[in-house]
Amino acid sequence: MEEWTIEINRSATKKEKPNTDQLEFGRVFTDHMFIMDYSVPLGWHDARIIPYQPFSIDPSAMTFHYGQSVFEGLKAYYTPEGNIQLFRPEKNMQRLNRSNDRLCIPPIDEAFVLQAIKQLVYLDKDWIPTAEGTSLYIRPFIISTEPFIGVAPSHQYRLIVILSPVGAYYKEGINPVKIAVENQYVRTVKGGTGEAKTGGNYAASLKAQELCSQKGFTQVLWLDGVEKKYIEEVGSMNVFFKINGKVYTPALNGSILEGVTRNSVIQLLQHWNVPVIEERISMEVLYQAYLDGSLEEAFGTGTAAVISPIGQLSWEDKDLYINDGKTGKISRDLYNTLTRIQYGKEKDPFGWIDIVNEANAVKQ
Amino acid sequence: MEEWTIEINRSATKKEKPNTDQLEFGRVFTDHMFIMDYSVPLGWHDARIIPYQPFSIDPSAMTFHYGQSVFEGLKAYYTPEGNIQLFRPEKNMQRLNRSNDRLCIPPIDEAFVLQAIKQLVYLDKDWIPTAEGTSLYIRPFIISTEPFIGVAPSHQYRLIVILSPVGAYYKEGINPVKIAVENQYVRTVKGGTGEAKTGGNYAASLKAQELCSQKGFTQVLWLDGVEKKYIEEVGSMNVFFKINGKVYTPALNGSILEGVTRNSVIQLLQHWNVPVIEERISMEVLYQAYLDGSLEEAFGTGTAAVISPIGQLSWEDKDLYINDGKTGKISRDLYNTLTRIQYGKEKDPFGWIDIVNEANAVKQ
Ligand SMILES: Cc1ncc(COP(=O)(O)O)c(C=O)c1O
Ligand SMILES: Cc1ncc(COP(=O)(O)O)c(C=O)c1O
């Protein structure tokens, strides 16, 4: 880590905090944000924590035109003892740099940005909700800010980290969802940007999501963009299937986002001696497993829901009812263990927890 | 067209205009810009022309995170008589709405936005350069502005139109370029957003573009994302091949952007009784045509270059030298006719020209 300092400009007033029961994802933000700019030849510079506020940007800023941007998403959790925990944040920093590489954005100093995130979280720690299942969502993102509308990598960028308190994902207990297999639209394709966490992938997904919602489904299951046969992801989650006692998940293939939760689920299952197989999985094979009764569970994984059991999967004219539409044992065990580790209610044998504490207090 | 009014706030000062010889694409903007906002339930509202300036936006504005945005690109030309001409601008308005539909952005009133563009161009008409080959580039774009980081279509948008004087694309005469066929990265795929003019497609293209530039090529030729066999586009242009007296261009297939220049070239060729065939074209078939000597010309088409002849095409370990690396007759004829129509030097038999004049003067 290079020598960096973070300028601090504390907010003079504190915003009112929302009521815990009314927390909605991503609408309310804390008192401060972290900003850092990139230019040639300065590189990343001017790291600062300032009051959360709108910023001024030129209408020709490249990000508005050519979508050169990346982002991350992770959470801070309060333990019952009042400690603040992050879950594998270094994984998010690494993925941010992998996304940067794909999008031709200059790399960040991972250790420094993680340090900055911890300072920001500690400064706004009163915003971390404490009720069961609540947390503070952390959104780092980088946009291209050069005022130039030529199609080329920008020479100027801005990294911003904002924080948003979020309510419990499952207010009435973990609950299986209805998913539709998407046959027309694709999220991305091998050789595209699917491995990267970049806006365009999400923009591309909106239409299919909107159409499936109208039909009463929660999310779509994305098939590969080449043959439209192989399973990729579920909405903005990775996906797993338990078949005949073994757990399968699509192998990383260049178009699937490598989820931190996916990686943690794989490690946890291996720790439990449950066989995990990463391979290409076709809808046809999954359907056969369903027909012969060996498809036992299906679930999505991601930072937001942790584990999202799939109770029904609709594919063309077929409906697969999985585990009688109920949450399966593996899904529940994974959910419980992961959340207990995240919230510091269970020992973390994997070194996944990163503590935010006094050491991250702003000195000024 | 509904009843709309445009508020005008004229710039108190006029910026200095760049020297015509030093005009670079997309770096300098005129004195004014057009803005219009969308919200629920107001719809599109608050249409206004204001001094060109940065604007303030929340860091949680959706466009920064999920890339829900679209844009257009067209030009205004001065004729030798001092008339101001647009070239088929209604096509750009139609395409903007097609892009909107794919990106779940509410449609615009095409006639009204075109009207607003004409007012803006007329107000800043002193910025339209008059030297040979120069023009005023018009960039309408829409970004999603709702301060919310959930993955869903935004409920708030901003449409902005900015203007930038551009120099001649070919300073030393029309000149063939070296193109590399891209085998690893893809721009988009069927079921994706390729048909739409949206940021993510351009973000996805940067990496391949950067790698090919390093190897001395001007642009990449994109193959289809499914089989990596069929020709799609060249950089940000559509592509044509003259083979045995006939002109071929990839048929619109859901992943190719429908260029206004492409459409105009097809009409012009038909007008000249040159057979034009829109069909799926594989690199293999093109290579065979090259080997048997029937590949006569290749060129890209787009608003920026109009016609960009391809002198060399590199595919895997093969180099195709087309028309001895010189500009072919069809390429030159198309370039001359299209630019002569655009600049009002030749009669427009197609009704392509739309005049900007006194009627578009701001009344206030
Ligand atoms: C497309 C996509 N896939 C998968 C995931 C799951 O990744 P993680 O477990 O790191 O949250 C996410 C989001 O977070 C995502 O956006
Ligand atoms: C990807 C892409 N293809 C083709 C074109 C050509 O379209 P037009 O002729 O309308 O400029 C453009 C740009 O303008 C483009 O961005």
TrEMBL record, chains A, B:
Homology family: Belongs to the class-IV pyridoxal-phosphate-dependent aminotransferase family.
Residues carrying N6-(pyridoxal phosphate)lysine: K197
Single GO molecular function: L-valine-2-oxoglutarate transaminase activity
PROSITE patterns found in the cross-reference section: AA_TRANSFER_CLASS_4 (PS00770)
Known EC number: 2.6.1.42
Cofactor(s) essential for the protein: pyridoxal 5'-phosphate
Catalytic reaction list: L-isoleucine + 2-oxoglutarate = (S)-3-methyl-2-oxopentanoate + L-glutamate; L-valine + 2-oxoglutarate = 3-methyl-2-oxobutanoate + L-glutamate; L-leucine + 2-oxoglutarate = 4-methyl-2-oxopentanoate + L-glutamate
Gene3D superfamilies assigned to the protein according to its UniProt record, in alphabetical order: 3.30.470.10, D-amino Acid Aminotransferase, subunit A, domain 2 (3.20.10.10)
UniProt-recorded name of the protein: Branched-chain-amino-acid aminotransferase
Pfam families: Aminotran_4 (PF01063)
Pathway, per record: Amino-acid biosynthesis; L-isoleucine biosynthesis; L-isoleucine from 2-oxobutanoate: step 4/4; Amino-acid biosynthesis; L-leucine biosynthesis; L-leucine from 3-methyl-2-oxobutanoate: step 4/4; Amino-acid biosynthesis; L-valine biosynthesis; L-valine from pyruvate: step 4/4
Keywords for the protein's UniProt record, in alphabetical order: Amino-acid biosynthesis, Aminotransferase, Branched-chain amino acid biosynthesis, Pyridoxal phosphate, Transferase
Biological-process GO terms, alphabetical: isoleucine biosynthetic process; L-leucine biosynthetic process; L-valine biosynthetic process
